[in-house]
Amino acid sequence: MKISARNQFKGKVVEVTKGATTAHVKVDIGGQVVTSSITNAAVDDLGLVVDSEAYVVIKASDVLVAVE
């Protein structure tokens, strides 16, 4: 599979927490953990389980962080 997004990082799934409809998937990419919220159906379709390999793909026009 080829995609246009340049920010692609291969990592290992370290946690999958399913909710009512949405799951939080944590992927370790070289010591940094990235968390993504995706549907439970997507978790099942992709076969995401702890210790499986996955790519984190970041495609965003804005990344916001704020503190008081």
TrEMBL record:
Coiled coil ranges: none
Q: What protein name is recorded for this chain?
A: Molybdopterin-binding protein
Keywords from the named record: Molybdenum
**Which BP terms does GO give this entry?**
molybdate ion transport
Entry-linked InterPro entries: Mo/tungstate-bd_C_term_dom, Mop_domain, Transp-assoc_OB_typ1
What species is this protein from? Answer: Methylopila capsulata
The keyword Ion transport is assigned to this record: no
Residues in domain Mop? 2-67
Superkingdom as given in the UniProt entry: Bacteria
